[in-house]
Amino acid sequence: MGLQFEEDEFLACCGSTKFAKEMAKASPFSSLDEAVTAAREIWFNQVDVNAWLQAFSAHPQIGHSSSSSNATSAQWSKGEQATALATATNSSLQELSEWNAKYRQKFGFIFLICASGKSTDGILAELKKRYPNRPIAEFEIAAQEQMKITELRLVKLFSTKENVTSTCN
Amino acid sequence: MGLQFEEDEFLACCGSTKFAKEMAKASPFSSLDEAVTAAREIWFNQVDVNAWLQAFSAHPQIGHSSSSSNATSAQWSKGEQATALATATNSSLQELSEWNAKYRQKFGFIFLICASGKSTDGILAELKKRYPNRPIAEFEIAAQEQMKITELRLVKLFSTKENVTSTCN
Question: Which residues in chain B are contacts of A144 at CB distance < 8 A?
Fold first, then answer.
């Protein structure tokens, strides 16, 4: 007997509908570890490149607030960027915004980074370091960052459910 | 002084509008070699993953005739598939069509192969071999196949222009 989840809950972890469907099919999961293993397999080996692009487009530009229609995703995104926002100055936010635009122009999708615990300067340095990459290399790096974000969100999703379950017991 | 080309001529070589624009910007080319070197640099290092997907979608499914709006591209595609069509049987075409559908379902784009000189059985064997690949690996292989097709088409484009030039002299 494991924890059962809805497609929408997985969609809050990763904005690809294919990913969310496959995760819902693979659930219930008996543990968080089992869910993370399934998520990695689905994300890296099963969903196609269009699913990656769809998931990327569900994120707000880093330094901006989320416009996601998924309320949970928007709320989590805000939390993940908390350190960046706390360490931001007007000029660093301006520079980040300019580099974001430059990145999007080159790669055709937004700059994606697992921002939890990272300062604005740290994020900006990472963006500048990744910018010279070949588009296909950067595409795969962005997918790895998405997976890191998904894993952190799965942890949150499980802790919410476990709390609910223990409250009910 | 080199040969001057229009964007549309490059679009017949590779159906990405970004690629065609960049090639037109980089021309005139003093030789075919120079054009091929520029094309590789633009295709692998400059255009983004959306441009790759756009180029893939300009091809007919292998074993089918082209629906490309670019007449030159449609004609070249027919020539490239001549060996495959000459060696095809009803049952091999049927099997190819089924595997094409399976491939598209998994990867989100059509199976792309530089078909020049390849039999239907050879193409089918290659499709089955590539099918188990991870989506991101297959995406890059498809881009390499697209580049082979582009190179063959650049050869044709140059030979047409050189004939015209020598006729005019």
Answer: none
B47, B135, B143 ranked by CB distance to A48: nearest: B135
- Distance (Å, whole) CA B52 – CA A37: 30
How far, in Å, CA of A120 to CA of A137, rounded?
24
Q: Which residues of A are catalytic?
A: 59
pLDDT at A67: 65
DSSP B111-143: -----TT--HHHHHHHHHHHTTS-HHHHHHHHH
Cα end-to-end distance, chain A, whole Å: 15
Any catalytic annotation for residue B64?
no
Q: Please write the tens of the pLDDT for every residue from A93-122.
A: 899 999 999 999 999 999 999 988 888 999
Alpha-carbon dihedral angle through residues A34, A40, A42, A44, given to the nearest 10 degrees: -160
Q: How many contacts does A have with B, using Cβ atoms within 8 A?
A: 51
Task: Summarize pLDDT for B31-50 with one digit per residue, the tens.
Answer: 999 999 999 999 999 999 99
Cα separations in angstroms, B38 against A39, B16, B19, B86, B152: 40, 15, 10, 34, 14
Write down the H helix ranges in chain B: 7-13, 17-26, 32-41, 49-57, 71-80, 82-86, 90-107, 120-130, 135-168
* In contact, A38 and A29? CB cutoff 8 Å: yes
Tell me phi and psi for residue B22, to 5 degrees.
Answer: -65, -35
pTM for the whole structure: 0.88
Contact check, Cβ <8 Å, B53/A51: no
ipTM computed for the complex: 0.85
